[in-house]
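Dear Dr. L.,

I hope this message finds you well. Following up on our conversation about the binding site, I have prepared a predicted three-dimensional model of the protein together with zinc ion. For your records, I am including the exact sequence and ligand specification that went into the calculation, followed by the structure tokens. Please feel free to forward this to your student if that is useful.
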Amino acid sequence: MNKPPIRIEEDASGWTVTVNGQEFSGYIVDSRCDTCHSVIVYDMYYDSMFCPACNEWTEKYPICSDENCPFCSKKRPERPLRETVDGAPAPELPFVIVQMP
Ligand SMILES: [Zn+2]
Ligand SMILES: [Zn+2]
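The resulting structure of the complex is given below.
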């Protein structure tokens, strides 16, 4: 199967990451996915990290049991990427990182 690699663009400001056209406020963290060895992206909005290649958050949710928690009350979606990625890691070249000028 030839799955296209996930395209990950990091804005020069370091505060926006675009994954297959979907924008996240956050940045690429210095850590790799245990499953597919892709880079991990930190999403500031949900205060959560995810693997864009697996389309999986790295932490359980809600993070805490506080109903008034500003992060947990945002109702994080089940998967970080909205569409196309079916959740299975790509076999090779799971991602490309594009540094924006
Ligand atoms: Zn992964
Ligand atoms: Zn919380």
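In brief: The beta strands are 6-10, 16-19, 22-32, 39-43, 48-51, 56-57, 95-99.

With kind regards,
A. P.
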